[in-house]
Amino acid sequence: MLTPDEKRFYDENGFILKKTLASHEDIEKIHEEIKDIHNRMAEQPVDGVGLSWEEFDDPALSPRLKQLMNSELISPTLNKILSSDTMLDILEQLIGPDVSLYHSKLLPKDAKDGTAIPWHQDYAYWNRDDNRPLMVNCQLAIDATTRENGCIQFVPGSHKWGLQEHQRRQQTFGVFLPGHYHEREDAVQVEMAPGDGVFFNALIIHGSAPNTSNLPRRMNTFAYNVTGNGLMQCRRALRGKPL
Ligand SMILES: O=C(O)CCC(=O)C(=O)O
Q: Quick check: pTM over 0.90?
């Protein structure tokens, strides 16, 4: 559960870091389940899993995943964590009793080759006539994340600014604020240990730098919605009323 101070921090800033959301044992299992994921997916994609690849100028570089959508299909442990009581109790504090899964995606920003994720608000992707910006993400650290390997960054309080004008390109993370990715003085970097999770609001401005280190930065983002808030945005009811 979030403490009253943590809840207040989330309401004011639009994000909150929760240490040790997943156990060391579960993180070890995820490491096994996603071992060599880039090559495995390049050789044999899995039904129902959506793959997006890094776009390199150098054709000699081997394929590197930018995003793997529906990661719960390749990792039973991620599938367990996304509907664990620990997770759902926190979500209930943030969005109320009716919680649905929208998606689960792996972001395996690889050592040296992982590129930046541009500044954006997730609601710029999710905005439809029939939904409100009630969704919440939880990004789980599978590796230690640092400034050097491109940890997630947030602009605190920007969830109160309303939906900003985004630019669009036909590519993964192709909805972004003017400037794509650049260092911002008003952003904070959230470094995490494996198993930590950061919860963040659908309207907060976030992004991350390229991975310039020798270590991978594998993260998994779970996106949740209030059940019934936009039919397309609720894949599976996890707690409270059914779909
Ligand atoms: O992994 C990152 O640095 C950002 C991820 C992101 O934008 C998202 O999950 O919505």
A: yes
Ligand 1 mean position to 61 CA, how many Å?
23
| Look-up of token digits 């230690």 | 144
Taking the centre of ligand 1 as the mean of its atom positions, its distance from the CA of residue 220, in whole angstroms, is 9
Q: Determine contact, residues 193/19, Cβ cutoff 8 Å.
A: yes
Query: Is the CB of residue 175 less than 8 Å from the CB of residue 124?
Result: yes
Class of domain 4-34+64-239: mainly beta
Q: How far is the CA of 72 from the centre of ligand 1 (A)?
A: 17
Q: What is the pLDDT of residues 186-201, one digit of tens each?
A: 999 999 999 999 999 9
Atom 10 (ligand 1): residue with closest C-alpha?
122
Q: Which of 33, 14, 1, 61 is nearest to 156 (CA)?
A: 14
User: What is the DSSP secondary-structure string of 196-219?
Assistant: -EEEEETT--EEE----SSS-EEE
- Write out pLDDT tens, residues 119-156: 999 999 999 999 999 999 999 999 999 999 999 999 99
How large is the greatest C-alpha to C-alpha distance in the chain, in angstroms? 52
Q: Distance between CA 100 and CA 243 in Å, rounded? A: 8
Residue spans of the domains in the chain: they are: 4-34+64-239
